[in-house]
Amino acid sequence: MATERTFSIIKPDATRRNLTGKVNAVLEEAGLRIVAQKRIHMTQAQAEAFYGVHAARPFFRDLVTFMISGPVVVQVLEGENAVARNREVMGATNPANAEPGTIRKLFAESIEANSVHGSDSAENAATEIAYFFAGTDIVG
Ligand code: CMP
Questions:
Q1: Measured between alpha carbons, how far is residue 88 from residues 25, 80, 92, 118, 129 in Å?
Q2: Which pTM does this prediction carry?
Q3: Neighbours of 134 (CB within 10 A)
Q4: Mean pLDDT of the chain
């Protein structure tokens, strides 16, 4: 098993309810180390670019509106198989389908306001990390 990095976002529904620390506790208990983190308010252009892969999906406009509706916390997580481990601990996109103990089961409000984002591959993780962080921002 390899140590790798993944990209994570704590979404506006979670920051609004002051859940950053609770989400981070679940991540840390799952063996992931937060090696970079900052709270930002995404611009519309940033959200549209970040979710560009979903531009043709019917939920795209609502997703962008939601992601700029309040602050988010962008993060780099490090650990053994961090991409897969983070997806496991996040739970299914739709909280109704998420396993007990996962972040989305514990905290998500809906399929859109689902509290966290996590990269779906190591390749996308590298792209997403570079979108928000310089190499010198990441301290492992
Ligand atoms: P995320 O992992 O950030 O990637 C795309 C996001 O689109 C997803 O989480 C959800 O928050 C949001 N979304 C809204 N509606 C849907 C849907 N019907 N299917 C998948 N994702 C959706």
A1: 15, 13, 8, 10, 19
A2: 0.97
A3: 9
A4: 98
